[in-house]
Amino acid sequence: IVSSVKTAGWPSPGAAPRPEPMARRLLIPDVELSEDRLELPSGAAHKVRRVLRLTPGAELLLLNGRGDSARVRIREITSDAVRVDVLERSSERTTGDKPSVHLVQGLTKGGGKFDEIVKRATELGVASVTPALTERSVARPNDKKARARLERWRTIAAEASTQCGRSHLPTIHPLQPLEAVLRESSTKGTARIFLWEEESSQS
User: Fold this and answer.
1) Which residue, 119, 113, 155, is CA-closest to 138?
2) Taking the CA of residue 129 as centre, how many other CA atoms within 13 Å lie in the half-sphere pointing to its CB?
3) pLDDT of residue 157
4) pLDDT by residue (tens digit) across 18-33?
5) What is the rounded distance in angstroms from the CA atom of residue 90 to the CA atom of residue 9?
6) Is the dihedral of CA 61, 64, 68, 74 positive or negative?
7) Which residues are bridge partners to 90 per DSSP?
8) Under a CB-based contact definition with an 8 Å cutoff, are residues 48 and 62 in contact?
9) Is the distance from CB of 181 to CB of 130 less than 8 angstroms?
10) What does the alpha-carbon distance between residue 127 and residue 40 come to, in Å, rounded to a whole number?
11) Where do the H-state alpha helices sit in the chain?
12) Cα 43–Cα 119–Cα 133 angle in degrees, nearest 5
């Protein structure tokens, strides 16, 4: 279901916001976009000032990772704040009539491989990614390394979501044994599909 607040000269209700050419996407997780004027969180404000080096009048497409987006114009930039005016909003809510895909992936030996899996899965639209320890997993990080990897994967997912413009940020779950994942997913109405490189027929 898509709802939008329309401004003059813009698409009819139901259409997603269309930023001006070269407008930047900016992810601000879990921030409400319902107000007509917003002050960006400190991290996003720093990126606007120091990384993107934008100026008042520039437009952005803000995404909060929960299905809401807003096309905004920068009104004011100070040393400690960036304030914007909302030009148009869009809200995309899941209705339950479409299946969601949850990827459970055995932990790979090389960390870079799993980074790429998280990135590509995010771009393809999965709802969540769960790294799993299997019987033959070679990599078995301790708790400290597992937490560091989880934060890196969540950062990768956020960056990939911003790049591809998806409205919902995927959930990246902590590393856990495959047996635990399977127990948690054994709910009614859930189809579990196992991919095996040596499979020659369907059972």
Assistant:
1) 113
2) 26
3) 95
4) 544 557 889 898 888 9
5) 16
6) negative
7) 4, 69
8) no
9) yes
10) 26
11) 42-46, 111-124, 143-164, 178-184
12) 110
| Torsion, CA 129, CA 191, CA 136, CA 184, rounded to 10 | 70
Local structure of 141: helix, strand or coil? coil
State the number of CA atoms in the 13 A half-sphere of 132 facing the CB. 19
The per-type count for the chain, helices as H runs and strands as E runs, is 4, 10
Note the pLDDT tens digit of each residue in 165-181.
Answer: 888 899 999 999 999 98
Q: What percentage of the chain reaches a pLDDT higher than 70?
A: 81
The residue type found at 168 is: H
Calpha distance 89→178 (Å, rounded):
40
Cβ atoms of 38 and 25 closer than 8 Å: no
Which tokens sit at 54? 């934008």
pLDDT at residue 110, rounded to an integer: 73
CA 165/CA 145 separation, integer angstroms: 30
Cα atoms in the 13 Å half-sphere on the side-chain side of 54: 26
What's the one-letter identity of residue 39?
E
Would you state the structure tokens that stand for residue 178, as one six-digit string?
A: 């495959």
Concatenating the DSSP letter of every residue in 114-125 gives: HHHHHHHHHHHT
Nearest by Cα to 125 from 148, 88, 147, 94:
94
Nearest to 167 by CA among 25, 6, 37, 22: 25
